[in-house]
Specification:
heterodimer; A: about 550 residues; Rossmann fold; six-stranded mixed beta sheet; about 35% helix; about 20% strand; globular; B: about 290 residues; mainly alpha; 10 helices; flat
Chain lengths: ~550, ~290
């Protein structure tokens, strides 16, 4: 069988870069394969995808050695436009991947570019719309679509010509977990029904490993592992723990084998070992049980609250209500995760805390300055060098002093996030007792597009800010990432339709759900309130001890 | 200002006709010096905006045009030297020399301001009622790249506006109170370039570069609908009325050296006819989903 993608000894260096982004990469992808590309940030994943789509070297320039053949076309001779017939490409940001005014035009655009007849275009649009479930959006203006809808339409445009291969560069990084899961399921469907080969680069591996036939891991531009998902997880356990999924870490810590590529496999293994605790009737909050009731602000907390929402409402003049009678108190030193689906009111709540919005009814009071880090850290960075962005002491506190001469746009996602944090905290970053120290630190989706290593660093940093002491700031993080919430927060507030529907310790709120639950909790069915692999492994080890005891 | 397909007769016509209709209103505004006829064209645009259910968008655009129209109306009397009827002598104004405000300058300034408002309103009617993607298809055989650039510019406006809002919010959150204006302008420009590069990469992988080679195939001829014919006829009549008013002596106007504006029944009749001609096609709603 002729491979749909063949990469031979590819070494590539971007223009003006000192180090090659890819080093002697050789691999093949067979027709109909579902391949996940794994690796830490800056490991060369995106560059490899861009080489397969022809953007490297035709669009980016640089020094290119070796050979890439896509669907029989050599990328040295054929540019991205030629390759578009055999390989569809989807990038991270949905906003810049849709170029025309309506969904119908967008889906028709690649077919028109290929010079198809009007009837072939109409049929192609209809079929791809049905395949991706966007037929209801066909006449909607693209400017009015949500991020998830836009990404789905962009995927439609990339596969409308029925390419043999589709290349996806972190397509779910800007989406909420529901939209992200849906997109991966769509890819699975295209892979199974149309036989399209998929090469998917993704940081949240637990989302896609269950669908993959094969995983290729890159490390500093070279292929470090190429095998099935279980082989990859075994390799990651030894060589790149940051790439291990929570499920694999749970099994690793508990000494269980084989390592699971997804929740289904994990539960099957536990069931086989008689370790599926929830099924045995262990005490755990099940989805049927009511969520913990929202806590009204306690009088004791109200007096000393770092931030207080008192019956706060926010209604847009056009009529949409985003916050409904929200009463919440955040104590100094408290670590809180705000969760909920898109549009639940998380960002609006933080914007009220930061003073960017005023409640239309009720009050929002903070005990001092509120440092607010919004979703896009790049928007905070407006200077030519890192040193100009924040005081030297703040840079040192964030571990960025060695990057002082660099341009902020040249930093990795994690570094940019830390720099933006230094910008909003200012001098107080280095000296928590500084007069300008904030009473509250709010972060909106701080881990979007971050790899697990960078997330770990951020959690360590945030935990250092709020240790529970009375003079520490309250730290509030709005996130879709249940693993982050479980690692960082001691209180989780679940929002829906602008009001808190659950408010309690992380173990209570995150253990019994499905979307708002960690992978460990989903594997264990919420047993024992275990959220993190380490807690789950301890639970399983205890269970195994009981099982083998005479 | 985003095109949204609505269930109105104007949205139902082919892009070429929608384009001609808006162009006819613009042309009528340019040809009409007589303020009565010009006001009639303005009313015609308003009627069309109501008929196409885009009254809010057109009104907003017209309001913004006042930023240009009012200063122009005020500056014209200060700069023009051709009028004979002096209403105020303002003395020496530095490089402007002796400034005499004339009645003719005031009237012409007002007509100029009104024309700008009508032109902007008619242009916004075009933007809100003509499908840019349809226009791209129409123009791609003539100049694909120019048409695509225009459509992309329209698409990038809301994206860049959202970027601007994000940047403004982020600056309010900086501990140091925000970057300097120069830094902000630089950041905005860099952000726009980043966006443009991303969009260019998307165009590449969608096969845009091959379009020029393969050429756009001509779509099968669509029959002309009654709405196409009605709006085309309306556009022809509006332009004809404007020409008639200007060149047949029905609604003429001269401003310098002395202002003479045709008054009475003829200009009013031309104005009313323009409004009726522009508004009539909206009465036929047959076949509008």
């Amino acid at each position: 069988m002729t491979p749909v993608l063949a990469v031979e000894h590819l070494t590539y260096t971007y223009a003006n870069a000192r180090e090659p982004a890819l080093r002697d990469v050789s691999l093949t992808v067979e027709p109909g394969e579902f391949v996940v590309l794994a690796g830490l940030s800056a490991s060369g994943k995106s560059t490899l995808l861009r080489a397969a789509s022809g953007l490297v070297p035709h669009f980016h320039g640089g020094t290119f050695g070796g050979r890439v053949v896509v669907g029989g076309l050599d990328t040295r001779e054929h540019g991205p436009a030629d390759l578009a017939c055999v390989a569809g490409t989807l990038f991270q940001d949905p906003e810049t991947q849709v170029v025309l005014g309506t969904v119908r035009s967008e889906l028709a655009f690649p077919l028109e570019n290929r010079g198809l007849s009007a009837s072939a275009i109409a049929r192609g649009v209809e079929e791809v719309a049905l395949a991706l479930g966007v037929e209801g959006l066909l006449d909607r203006p693209t400017a009015e679509l949500s991020g998830g809808e836009l990404q789905r339409v962009a995927l439609g445009a990339s596969v409308a010509g029925r390419p043999d291969l589709v290349l996806l560069d972190e397509p779910t990084s800007q989406l909420d977990p529901v939209a992200g899961d849906e997109l991966v399921w769509l890819l699975r469907r295209l892979n199974e029904e149309w036989g399209t080969a998929v090469v998917l680069c993704e940081h949240r591996l637990e989302r896609c490993l269950g669908h993959a036939d094969r995983v290729i891991a890159l490390d500093r531009g070279a292929v470090a592992c190429d095998g099935d998902p279980r082989a990859f997880l075994g390799w990651a356990g030894e060589h790149a723990p940051a790439l291990q999924t929570p499920g694999a870490r749970l099994f690793d810590r508990a000494g269980l084998r084989p390592l699971p590529a997804g929740v289904k496999q994990a539960r099957a293994t536990l069931r086989a070992h008689g370790l599926l605790i929830a099924e045995g009737g262990a005490a755990s909050p099940s989805p049927e049980e009511p969520a913990p009731a929202p806590r009204r602000p306690k009088r004791a907390v109200r007096g000393a609250a770092a931030l207080l929402f008192d019956r706060a409402w926010f209604e847009y003049p056009a009529g949409r209500t985003v916050l409904r009678d929200v009463s919440l108190a955040f104590a100094p030193g408290e670590r809180v995760a705000l969760m909920g689906r898109n549009g639940a009111g998380k960002s609006t709540l933080l914007r009220h805390a930061g003073g960017l919005m005023e409640p239309t009814r009720g009050t929002v009071k903070a005990a001092g300055r509120v440092a607010l880090l919004l979703q896009d850290p790049g928007a905070y960075l407006v200077h030519e060098t890192v040193a100009e962005e924040a005081p030297a002491a703040a840079l040192a506190a964030e571990g960025l002093s060695h990057l002082a001469d660099r341009h902020p746009r040249d930093l990795s996602g994690g570094e940019r996030q830390r720099l933006a944090l230094a910008v909003v905290l200012g001098s107080a970053d280095a000296h928590p007792a500084h007069p300008a120290a904030p009473a509250v630190i709010c972060l909106d989706e701080p881990t979007r597009g971050m790899d697990r290593g960078a997330k770990g660093d951020l959690v360590t940093r945030l935990r250092a800010f709020a240790t529970g002491a009375a003079d520490d700031p309250a730290v509030i993080v709005a996130t879709h990432d249940a693993e982050l919430a479980a690692t960082f927060a001691d209180r989780v507030i679940l929002l829906a339709d602008g009001r808190p529907i659950a408010d309690g310790p992380a173990a209570e709120v995150l253990a019994g759900g499905w979307y708002f639950a960690t992978e460990t909790a989903r594997i264990l069915g919420g047993a024992g309130g275990a959220l993190l692999p380490e807690e789950g492994a301890e639970l399983l080890r205890g269970r195994m001890t009981i099982e083998v005891a005479p | 200002m985003i095109y949204r397909r609505l269930a109105t007769p104007l949205h139902a016509v082919r892009p070429a006709v929608g384009c001609l209709y808006a162009l006819a209103l613009c042309l009528a505004a340019i040809l009409s010096d007589n303020p009565v006829v010009l006001a009639g064209v303005g009313v015609a645009v308003a009627v069309a905006a109501c008929g196409a259910q885009v009254r809010g968008g057109v009104a907003k655009a017209a309001k913004w045009s006042l930023i240009l129209a009012i200063p122009l109306a005020l500056i014209n009397p200060l700069l023009v030297r051709d009028g004979l009827t002096v209403v105020a002598r303002l003395g020496e104004w530095g490089p402007l020399g002796q400034v005499d405000v004339t009645l003719e300058g005031i009237v012409y300034g007002a007509v100029l301001g009104l024309r700008i408002v009508v032109l902007v309103a008619a242009s916004s009617l075009f933007a809100l009622t003509v499908d840019p993607d349809g226009l791209l298809r129409l123009l791609r055989r003539v100049s694909f790249r120019s048409a695509l650039t225009a459509v992309l510019a329209t698409r990038l406006v809301p994206v860049l506006a959202a970027d601007g809002r994000r940047l403004a919010d982020a600056q309010k959150c900086r501990a140091d109170g925000g970057g300097s204006r120069v830094a902000l302008v630089r950041a905005v420009a860099t952000g726009a370039l980043d966006r443009a590069v991303d969009v260019a990469a998307t165009l590449e992988v969608r096969g845009y570069a091959t379009a020029a080679r393969v050429g756009g195939r001509r779509s099968p001829r669509e029959p002309w609908s009654r709405h196409d014919l009605a709006f085309l006829a309306s556009a022809v009549v509006v332009v004809a009325l404007a020409l008639l008013g200007r060149y047949a002596g029905l609604a003429g106007a001269t401003f310098y050296p002395e202002t003479t504006i045709d008054a009475g029944v003829p200009p009013v009749a031309v104005a009313v006819a323009v409004v009726v001609a522009a508004g009539l096609p909206f009465l036929d709603r047959r076949g509008i989903a």
